[in-house]
Amino acid sequence: MSEKKKHSIFVNGAITPEFITNSIAKHSTKTNIGAHDIFLGQVRNDIIDNKTVVAINYEAYQEMAEEQIHEIREAAFAKYNLVCMHIYHSLGLVKAGEICLFVFVSAKHRKDAFEACQTIVEQIKAITPIFGKEILEDASFVWKENR
């Protein structure tokens, strides 16, 4: 199990490149890490009913989502030989091309990092109560379906 305490995984708006860079840079002093795996979820400009998606407005049942992500996190630490993990998800408006999900997993070996990161992302998409309204170019919206 990890020694980390629960903290909010939510970020207002897009997750910036600077935030991601700073997170990565902080790990250069951790010499027991041999591999990192990073997943960056980016808002696509899909076409829905002949209209382009220009942004997604994310909402969540925050307390429940954070509890579920804490459980996902603890299960990953129990299953894989991980050194550390960071998970962040946007709330509010995120424009097409911007980052909305950042999962950063560190381990002694690459196999654990790869497998843990993929499992974590799939579980977040499948079970957490985080919802997105896809905002279309004409300001109409549709609720996003996770695929």
Tell me about this structure:
- By secondary structure, the chain is α+β, with helices and mostly antiparallel strands.
- It contains three helices and eight strands; from the N terminus they run E-H-E-E-E-H-E-E-H-E-E.
- The chain has helices at residues 17-25, 62-79, 110-127, and strands spanning 10-12, 35-42, 47-48, 51-60, 82-95, 99-107, 130-136, 141-143.
- Strands 1, 2, 3, 4, 5, 6, 7 and 8 form an eight-stranded mixed β-sheet that branches.
- Strand 7 (130-136) and strand 8 (141-143) form a beta hairpin.
- Helix 2 (62-79) runs antiparallel to helix 3 (110-127).
- The radius of gyration is 16 Å and the shape is elongated.
- It starts with 9 loop residues before the first strand and ends with a strand.
- The mean pLDDT is 93.
In short:
The chain is α+β, with helices and mostly antiparallel strands and 147 residues long. Helix content is 31%, strand content 38%.
Contiguous helical run count: 3
Order of helices and strands: EHEEEHEEHEE
- How many strands, which pairing sense, and closed or not: the largest β-sheet? 8 strands, mixed
Count of distinct strands: 8
Question: What is the beta-strand fraction?
Answer: 35-45%
Which shape, going by the Cα principal axes? elongated
What is the rounded Rg?
Answer: 16 Å
- Distance between termini? 30 Å
Instruction: List segments where confidence is low: pLDDT < 50 over at least 5 consecutive residues.
Output: none
Mean pLDDT: 93
Structural class: alpha+beta
In quaternary terms, these chains amount to single chain
Helix content: 25-40%
